[in-house]
Amino acid sequence: MGGLVKGPDTKSDQWEVSYSYSLSPRTLLYAGYVKLNNECNAKYSFNINGYTINTSHSVSSAATVPCNGKPSGAIFGIVHFF
C-alpha cells in the first residue's frame, strides 16, 4: 500500500480533471481523470486497493527500470438526490 515516507525525493503531485452534467434538478452525471506523479522515493497511491508502488532503483541489462510509480485512474458515475 502507499504511505508516508521521509527523506529526499519524496514529493508527489496530484492532477485531476472532472466534469459534472445535470440531468435534472436532483440527478447528475460525472466523469473525471486523476493522476499521481511520485518522485523517486515517494510511494503514494489512492488507498482503495492493494496496489503497491515500487521504489527500488533496480537496473536491468536492457534498460533502467523507473524508480517511481505514477498511478492514474478514471471515474464515472451518476448521483440521484432523494
Structure, described:
The protein has 82 residues and is mainly beta. It is 0% helix and 41% strand. The chain contains no helices and 3 strands. It has strands at 12-24, 27-38, 72-80. A 3-stranded antiparallel β-sheet has the order 1-2-3, with no helix packed on it.
Give a topology summary:
Layout: E1 12-24, E2 27-38, E3 72-80
Antiparallel strand pairs: 1-2, 2-3
Could you say which structural class the secondary elements and strand pairing correspond to? mainly beta
User: Measured on Cα atoms, how large is the radius of gyration?
Assistant: 17 Å
Instruction: Summarize the main sheet.
Output: 3 strands, antiparallel
Average pLDDT, rounded to a whole number, is 79
Q: Strand fraction band?
A: 35-45%
Distance between the ends: 36 Å
DSSP helix count? Answer: 0
pLDDT < 50 stretches: none
Q: What helical percentage do the residues reach?
A: under 10%
What is the element string, with H for helices and E for strands?
Answer: EEE
Order of strands across the biggest sheet?
A: 1-2-3
Number of beta strands:
3
Which shape, going by the Cα principal axes?
elongated
